[in-house]
Amino acid sequence: MKEANSVLSSYSTTVFEVMSRLALEHDAINLGQGFPDEDGPEDLRRVAAEALIAGPNQYPPMMGLPVLRQAVASHDKRFYGLNLDWQTEVMVTSGATEALADCLLGLIEPGDEVIVLEPYYDCYLPLIKRAGGIPKVVRMSPPDWKLPLEELEDAFTQDTKLIMINSPMNPVGKVFSWDELEALAEMCLRYDVFAVCDEVYEHLVFGGQKHYPLLTLPGMRDRTVRIGSAGKSFALTGWKVGYICAAPEVLAPIAKAHQFNTFTTAPHLQKAVAEGLAKDRAYFDGLIKELQGKRDYLSKELAAMGFKVLPCEGTFFVTVDFSGLYRGTDEAFCRHITTEAKVAAVPISVFYEMEGPTQMARFCFSKKMSVLEEAVRRLKGLFS
């Protein structure tokens, strides 16, 4: 039998699935995979349910329902001052991962170089390589994950076509500062490259910090793709509704990839997400307050056990250095706490191309407080 595709066949099952299976096998609390354990706002779920019954349930427009595309444009105007033409600059996708794939398939040619900041979300490199791109990885280092400007400058060449930016950043919770974004924008302009910005955690920024889309910086309007997700903003990760904003000439080839990929997204979910994006700022402020409280609780309790807790400026995740408590690798540590304490986490090394930190793990705090309290109790039983 002929061999399957060599790029995708070379990857093992995603660590999130592996750890979730292990957590299920051992009846463990799953603080590994990044999803809330409560469904999102009931009013949005009711909109989706009623729209499902009322219909229509046939193919919606390939670019997305007008009501959702208009809502995305209005949202970005309200929060970031962006003036987007919803008809030519907004497209709906079946989740942010599809959006990322569409961007790479639509914007790069085989042999083009794509800069990726490390640690990175696990789908980035497989998607780049499958699209024929050549990843150029620039490593960021703990504990502050500061953008290494000299190393980044060295990564740009005449063959660089695109840079991928994730802010707020999964897995480490970094939020890029305005100064860092200015430096990124300057390099993008100087080397004439596209910027694909994964901003799915845009509304999950803590400590009074602010999320700045790269799309808003001078000169970046015509070369930047902004990706958002209803899954993170409304705790509805299973809906897989994402959206892309970009200038018409940039969005057009991405839309061609979308056309031959998923083509469209469930219409009843699109209608509900449109309602969500129109929510008052109080909803988003409340979401931040709730998650920041959970971050603070889990961070404090882990630190009291002897973990070195790294700063978390956004996202669902807190990263810890466990070297003072456990001498094995991060993968061994995560298996250890899953089987012995019945609490699952994710090893940080899986977010690196080559060998990365081997004694760090990521815990997800977007859970009920009672679940976090039980997880803390179990971990204390193992490490206290």
TrEMBL record:
<dbReference type="InterPro" id="IPR051326">
    <property type="entry name" value="Kynurenine-oxoglutarate_AT"/>
</dbReference>
<protein>
    <submittedName>
        <fullName>Aminotransferase</fullName>
    </submittedName>
</protein>
<dbReference type="InterPro" id="IPR015421">
    <property type="entry name" value="PyrdxlP-dep_Trfase_major"/>
</dbReference>
<dbReference type="InterPro" id="IPR015422">
    <property type="entry name" value="PyrdxlP-dep_Trfase_small"/>
</dbReference>
<dbReference type="Pfam" id="PF00155">
    <property type="entry name" value="Aminotran_1_2"/>
</dbReference>
<keyword id="KW-0808">Transferase</keyword>
<feature type="domain" description="Aminotransferase class I/classII large">
    <location>
        <begin position="27"/>
        <end position="379"/>
    </location>
</feature>
<dbReference type="InterPro" id="IPR015424">
    <property type="entry name" value="PyrdxlP-dep_Trfase"/>
</dbReference>
<dbReference type="GO" id="GO:0008483">
    <property type="term" value="F:transaminase activity"/>
</dbReference>
<keyword id="KW-0032">Aminotransferase</keyword>
<keyword id="KW-0663">Pyridoxal phosphate</keyword>
<dbReference type="InterPro" id="IPR004839">
    <property type="entry name" value="Aminotransferase_I/II_large"/>
</dbReference>
